TrEMBL record, chain A:
PANTHER family: BRCA1-ASSOCIATED ATM ACTIVATOR 1
Family statement: Belongs to the BRAT1 family.
Any one biological process term the GO annotation gives: cell population proliferation
Subcellular location, principal: cytoplasm
Gene behind this protein: BRAT1
Subcellular compartments: Cytoplasm
A GO-annotated cellular component: cytoplasm
UniProt keyword terms in alphabetical order: Cytoplasm
Source species of the chain: Mustela putorius furo (European domestic ferret)
Protein name, entry field: BRCA1-associated ATM activator 1 isoform X4
Automatic annotation (TrEMBL), chain B:
InterPro entries reported for this sequence: Beta_Casp, Integrator_9su, Metallo-B-lactamas, RibonucZ/Hydroxyglut_hydro
Gene Ontology annotations of biological process type: negative regulation of transmembrane receptor protein serine/threonine kinase signaling pathway; regulation of cellular response to growth factor stimulus; RNA polymerase II transcription initiation surveillance; snRNA 3'-end processing
Database matches in Pfam families: Beta-Casp (PF10996), Lactamase_B_6 (PF16661)
PANTHER family: INTEGRATOR COMPLEX SUBUNIT 9 (PTHR46094)
The protein's name in its UniProt record: Integrator complex subunit 9
Length: 764, 603
């Protein structure tokens, strides 16, 4: 322990031992404990105690009966445990009100149980519970007693201890333990309602996942099946998902679990069925009355259950062990129906359907969940008539003035995913005719959304446009539809939106449109006032004048992409472009803009010098160095765009990521030029010295003086003389290593109880 | 207690309540949808409208061709537009004691009632209601009078002929009662009968009932009314809103414990959320203007327009519309914009506080100052020299049958760049557009109706717990086009009583108590006897005196003193029915004797 901490420790121990100074923050104590753990792991605990007698005093002090807070007591006990593993029963701690204390006590019980079962050295523990060590028997007895209790908190704690046990211990004795306790756990199911259902589900799933147990022999599957049918639909959903995620489990149980999971949606389909019930989902799952009862009486219960079900199914869909056959069509139908009910556009024939409609009408939570789910379902296809319905309901949501901004965003996302999955004509990469038809209906909606008074809506509209353009910008059908609409022109106008997020999204969208040649300069007699200004000029203007960071960052990203793609506006005079951008970016107050400037510099550098060597040890890299001639020219080009001045400034940037990035860039450059012999110059030239002197001043914080025009040789010499590796090491150290230090923790804790000298001085 | 229902229009109600000895008319709304059957009145000579072919019957007889014209597949009456009045035959309107007005939209039939039925009572309304109501009437009269039309069609109204006409003329109801617009003189006379009231002010009607206006949150000065006696309370809820717009918020608490709640004036577009519609309005407006088109907003000169202007005030800069002129054209545009700023006490709290700052409550003042919003009495005059396109024009009338809007429809209808945005929910936009078809201009329907929707009503009813609810029949079932939407109807227990035009409802409610005062000297003389802890009884002998619907127990007259020589002229004049009172039984009753006496008396 460093001396500074040693000095603070006595005062802290005094605070902890003083019941009048309550330590309200549990997390401090947890951190303190972590710190002691690392100290004792690194060195001798005995020495630590000898050097810091205050610790022993604290531990002795807490043993005296007094009004010490349970948190400090727990901390002290665990600290004692850290110093010397003492075995004792801390069961009474389990019922403590502090979450940390209860959980620590539970964990302690598990550890003690596990330790005692591992035994001293008498071979593997007996598989007869009667022969278990007395300590273990006592703990098991305590758990049994708790499971028989009528108080739900006690049952919950016992279940949690067991859950931890089965998650952490996979020895054969755990099977004995399960066989012994299983009847008690199963007995819980006979109670109505089932107590501590959530913890029970956790326990059963942890037992089922435990490799130490052979599930079939322990009646686990039967218990799981029983539990599925006893729990309420909301609780059973979680268990069903857990069961379906299990690697191996009986087919019948999986089918039952899936049926439970699908039940709420089956109810929805049944309630809204127009004619005879839909097939598929309902064949195996007769929408039982319990779920229907659960759905209909209250809005909160209905919405909660539906959202949970949709989220569970969404998690299940991408898993390899998902149920097969997957009921894609009924699920699509259910998602579409839910979305219609939320809009009031479905026309349910039954009373239950009408009730459901009244509950779900305008419910944003269900709308969001259903749109997310619908988007996920796009990974699979569906019957064409259902896909048509999907697009219809999406269009309805995109059009509706009542769609909230978040719902609209989700609708855009789901629409994009469905467009991605829409079938393509074989041999033709273009969008098929249905999709194009849809697109023609979609674009006017997008147009209107881009004019929305709500900035979130304009923003998600632009994001959607960017995604679409990135994906289909090269395809004739899409290009034709887009160019025939007002969308490109409206996007251009949004570059001047008052909301910075929207401007940023408009920059990205325009960058993308321009890359694909989809920008239409405003022209025509109806726009006499608008000047013909190039997009490049407009974006440079934003970069140098916009008051908010987001649009400027977006511009830098667009420029980097343009450089990478050799955009027509850039290739004309790349050097001038790069020089201009770097000059503006270097002065930006936003570190992300400067960092993005380095990214752009890197792209330029790679274009000049070739990509960095592969780090893969098996890659075939030609050992030959780059020829000197082109290298010199490349370096001269880099000098002309003042890339070095930009990078050197960034190297001493007060924001660590910028400095790190610059360091990496310069290291790459040095590696690239290392083998070039023609540029080796003596490093004592006067130019080199003056540059190094300037850099010294920069490092010290005085960046006023520019470097002026640099020669490649000078740059290389400066690069070679710099300890870039050392700098990278220093930068790699976390910037908050000061804040995370134990000294800082001790100071903080003392400060909260007002013990530090300066605070006392304040009183006078 | 009876309710006479004179109007079938749920948002333009006109009901008469007979309560105790009073006859109270609740609102007198004017159903103007009848004007949709008439040809528009063009402000500027329109060759298209003046050269329409006359309509002839299937058998070729053309005797109606002067009255009926065919226009884009529809038949319209070529005459001065007429309005559908409230029922005048159901009850003798000269017996109406008072008329309570709840908001300026619900008083448009007032001149017909006060000037032509022998009405001699008083009308009660708040000041903004009267002032803005006057503006609306003035605008209406102006719109119609400035396009004089000699012809008044009446042949088609003949029942036998009407049967032969195409829809919707064939199905038009009560055509015989349709009347031409009133004159400004009638308006002034009607308005002179109004007595101004303030929110929560208690007004005694003949000592029998007390009426009180409460803020209803829908429009400037809009009110609901409480009509109560000592033991009965009737609430009349007309156009009300719970949204935070410009008016003072709705007073819900005072509606509690009503015996009967009469519920009218709910939103006409229950499926459209006003916030979403305002967003839609702004988006479509911006889209049109950015494409170089003009936007036409047919509207009333007061009400939602204040909120729209406020939204646009916040929106135009962000939408890059700062250079687009906004024109508000109405004969009363100036008064409307100025009035709104001076009714401070009737505004929502937020706006009230602005009155004490050097800042007007509504931002349209700033729009006017910065020349972004300009207002004109008519498109003739200054407007034609200032007019610049693309622009946004707010003008009336929302029916598209008269007012400056007719001209703009003719002017802009041919270009698909232009857009007409309907924000007023009172008229079917398709019917309003019928005489302008075919139309190239884009039409957007964004009805903004801030009145209560059914979810809000159901919460309100749960909150105020009336014993009985009475409402127009339209509210007791889902709209015909959305029969599955059980949420679009009033759901309460016991089920609401519904009414329709020309129906008389006996309200399900019996009066059981009446308050009687006891004179102090009589009260002094009472000797209460406790019969149960907390309950005492006393017998009282007194004379019940009833005057001005107030009942007072007075001490009984003393038995006439034997005239000791002095001769009294007519003793009975002072003390009527002056019999010597028999003493009353009190104390324990000898039951048997009592029963015997009873039997003897009865048999």
């Amino acid at each position: 322990m460093d001396p500074e901490c040693s000095q603070l420790l006595p005062a802290l121990c005094a605070v902890l031992a003083d019941p009048r100074q309550p330590m309200v923050d549990d997390t401090c104590l947890e951190k303190l404990l972590d710190w002691f753990k690392t100290i004792t792991e690194a060195g001798s605990s005995l020495l630590l105690l000898q050097e810091n007698p205050c610790l022993v005093e604290l531990l002795c002090h807490v043993l005296k009966p007094q009004d010490l807070s349970s948190r400090v007591l727990s901390f002290s006990l665990r600290l004692t445990g850290v110093f010397a593993a003492q075995e004792d029963c801390f069961q009474y701690l389990q019922g403590d009100s502090s979450l940390f204390v209860a959980s620590a006590a539970g964990q302690l019980l598990v550890h003690i149980l596990s330790l005692s079962m591992r035994g001293p050295a008498e071979g593997p523990p007996s598989l007869q519970a009667d022969d278990w060590p007395p300590c273990a028997q006592k703990i098991v007895g305590h758990i049994e007693e708790s499971l028989r209790s009528t108080a739900t908190p006690q049952i919950t704690q016992a279940l949690n201890v067991l859950t931890t046990t089965f998650s952490h211990c996979h020895d054969p004795w755990t099977q004995v333990l399960w066989v012994q306790l299983h009847p008690l756990v199963a007995a819980l199911l006979q109670k109505d309602p089932v107590p501590a259902a959530h913890s029970l589900v956790d326990l059963l799933l942890s037992v089922a996942r435990s490799p130490g147990l052979s599930s079939s022999s322990c009646g686990l599957w039967e218990t799981l099946a029983q539990t599925l049918s006893h729990l309420s639909p909301t609780q059973a959903g979680l268990l069903a998902l857990g069961i379906l995620k299990l690697q191996d489990c009986p087919q019948a149980l999986r089918a039952q679990a899936f049926a439970v999971l699908l039940q709420p949606l089956a109810c929805v389909l049944q309630a809204t069925a127009q004619g005879p019930g839909p097939s598929g989902l309902l064949d195996s799952t007769a929408a039982d009355s319990v779920t229907a009862d659960m759905l209909l009486p209250s809005k909160a219960a209905c919405v909660g259950l539906l959202c949970q079900t949709l989220a569970h199914l969404e998690l299940l869909l991408p898993l390899p062990q998902r149920p097969c056959p997957w009921p894609q069509a009924p699920l699509l139908g259910a998602a579409v129906t839910l979305l219609q009910l939320c809009r009031g556009s479905g026309s349910p024939a039954s009373d239950a359907g009408r009730q459901l409609c009244a509950l779900l009408l305008g419910c944003v939570r269900v709308q969001r969940a259903a749109l997310d789910f619908l988007g996920t379902l796009s990974q699979e296809t569906g019957p064409p008539e259902l896909v048509t319905q999907v697009f219809a309901v999406l269009l309805e949501y995109l059009r509706s003035p009542d769609s909230s901004p978040t719902v609209l965003k989700k609708a855009f996302q789901a629409t994009f995913r469905w467009l991605l999955s829409s079938p393509r004509t074989p041999g033709c990469s273009d969008l098929d005719s249905h999709t194009l038809l849809f697109l023609r209906e979609l674009l006017p909606v997008l147009q209107k959304r881009l004019c929305s008074p709500c900035w979130e809506v304009r923003d998600s509209g632009l994001e959607f446009l960017t995604q679409m353009t990135r994906r289909w910008g090269g395809q004739a059908g899409f290009r034709h539809a887009l160019l025939a609409s007002e969308v490109p022109r409206l996007t251009e106008q949004l570059l001047r939106d008052p909301e910075s997020y929207v401007r940023a999204s408009a920059v990205t969208a325009m960058g993308q449109l321009s890359s694909q040649g989809l920008c239409v300069p405003p022209a025509g007699p109806e726009h006499p006032g608008s000047q013909q200004k190039s997009l490049l000029g407009e974006l440079l203007h934003i970069l140098s004048t916009d008051s908010e960071g987001f649009p400027r960052r977006a511009v830098m990203q667009v420029f980097t992409q343009w450089l990478r793609d050799s955009h027509a506006d850039v290739v004309g005079d790349t050097e001038q472009f790069v020089a201009g951008v770097l000059q503006v970016a270097g002065q930006d107050l936003d570190w992300e803009v400067r960092a993005q400037g380095l990214e752009l510099a890197l792209v330029f550098l790679e274009q000049m010098l070739g990509p960095p060597r592969s780090h893969c040890p098996y890659a075939v890299t030609p050992p030959v160095a780059a020829p000197a001639g082109p290298l010199t020219q490349a370096l001269q080009s880099l000098c002309r765009v003042r890339l070095f001045e930009f990078a050197f400034r960034a190297l001493f940037d007060c924001d660590r990521p910028v400095a790190q990035k610059s360091c990496d860039l310069l290291l790459l450059l040095r590696a690239k030029t290392a083998s070039s012999s023609s540029l080796q110059e003596p490093r004592s030239s006067p130019d080199v010295a003056s540059v190094e002197a300037a850099l010294q001043r920069w490092r010290a914080g005085d960046q006023a003086q520019p470097l002026g025009d640099l020669e490649p040789e000078v740059v290389l010499a400066v690069l070679r003389s710099m300890d870039l590796e050392g700098l990278r090491g220093a930068l790699a150290e976390s910037s908050d290593h000061v804040e995370k230090s134990p000294q800082s923790l001790l100071q903080d804790m003392l400060a909260t109880v007002g013990i530090l000298g300066e605070n006392e001085a304040d009183c006078y | 207690m009876k309710l006479y229902c004179l109007s079938g229009h749920p948002t333009l109600p006109c009901n008469v309540l007979k309560f105790k000895s009073t006859t109270i008319m609740l609102d007198c709304g004017l159903d103007m949808t009848s004007t949709l059957n008439f040809l528009p009145l063009p402000l500027v000579q329109s060759p298209r409208l003046s050269n329409l072919p006359g309509w002839s019957l299937k058998d070729g007889s053309a005797f109606l061709d002067k009255e009926l014209k065919e226009c884009s597949g529809h038949v319209f009456v070529d005459s001065v537009p007429e309005f559908c009045l409230p029922e005048t035959e159901l009850i003798d309107l000269s017996t109406v004691d008072v008329i309570l007005i709840s908001n300026y939209h619900c008083m448009m039939a007032l001149p017909y009632i006060t000037e032509h039925t022998g009405f001699t009572g008083t009308v009660y309304a708040t000041e903004p209601t009267v002032q803005i109501g006057r503006l609306l009437m003035e605008e209406l009269v102006n719109f119609i009078e400035r396009v004089p039309k000699a012809q008044s069609a009446s042949l088609w109204k003949n029942k036998d002929i009407q049967r032969l006409l195409p829809s919707p003329l064939k199905d038009a109801v009560e055509v015989s009662t349709w009347r031409r617009c009133y004159t400004m003189q009638e308006v002034n006379s009607a308005l002179s009968k109004i007595q101004l009231v303030g929110y929560s002010q208690k007004i005694e009607l003949f000592g029998a009932v007390q009426v009180t206006p409460l803020s209803s949150g829908y429009a400037l000065g809009s009110s609901n009314w409480i009509i109560q006696s000592h033991y009965e309370k009737v609430s009349y809820v007309s156009g009300s809103s719970l949204l935070t717009t410009h008016p003072q918020p709705m007073d819900q608490a005072s509606l509690k414990n009503s015996d009967v709640l009469i519920l009218t004036g709910l939103t006409q577009i229950p499926t459209a959320n006003p916030d979403g519609m305002v967003g839609e309005f702004c988006s479509n407006l911006a889209l049109t203007v950015r494409n170089g088109g003009n936007v036409l907003v047919p509207c009333y000169p007061s009400g939602v327009i204040y909120d729209l202007l406020e939204c646009l005030y916040q929106y135009i800069d962000s939408a890059g519309l700062s250079n687009i002129p906004f024109y508000f054209i109405s004969p009363v545009a100036n008064s409307s914009l100025e009035f709104s700023q001076i009714f401070a006490e009737w505004l929502c709290h937020n706006k009230q506080t602005k009155v004490y700052l050097p800042e007007p409550p509504f931002p349209h003042a700033e729009l006017i100052q910065t020349n972004k919003l300009k207002h004109y009495p008519s498109l003739h005059g200054d407007f034609s020299s200032d007019f610049r396109q693309p622009c946004v024009v707010f003008t009336g009338h929302p029916s598209l049958r008269f007012g400056d809007v007719v001209h703009f429809m003719e002017l802009w209808g041919k270009s698909s760049l232009n857009t007409v945005i309907f924000t007023e929910p009172d008229f079917s936009y398709l019917e309003a557009l019928a005489p302008y078809q075919p139309l190239a201009m884009k039409c957007i329907y964004c009805p903004i109706d801030t009145r209560l929707n059914f979810i809000q009503v159901s919460k309100l009813l749960k909150e105020v717990q009336p014993l009985h609810v009475v409402c127009p029949e339209q509210y007791t079932q889902p709209p015909p086009a959305q029969s599955h939407r059980m949420d679009l109807m009033i759901d309460c227990q016991p089920p609401a009583m519904s009414y329709r035009r020309a129906e008389v409802l006996a309200l399900p409610f019996k009066r059981r108590y009446e308050k009687i005062e006891i004179m102090p000297e009589l009260a002094d003389a009472l000797v209460p006897m406790e019969i149960k802890p907390g309950i005492s009884l006393a017998t009282v002998s007194a004379v019940l005196h009833t005057k001005d619907n107030k009942h007072v127990l007075q001490p009984p007259p003393r038995p006439a003193q034997p005239s000791g020589g002095k001769k009294r002229k007519r003793a009975s004049e002072d003390i009527p029915d002056c019999k010597v009172l028999k003493p009353l039984l009190s104390g324990s009753i000898p039951v048997e004797q009592f029963v015997q006496t009873l039997e003897k008396e009865i048999l």
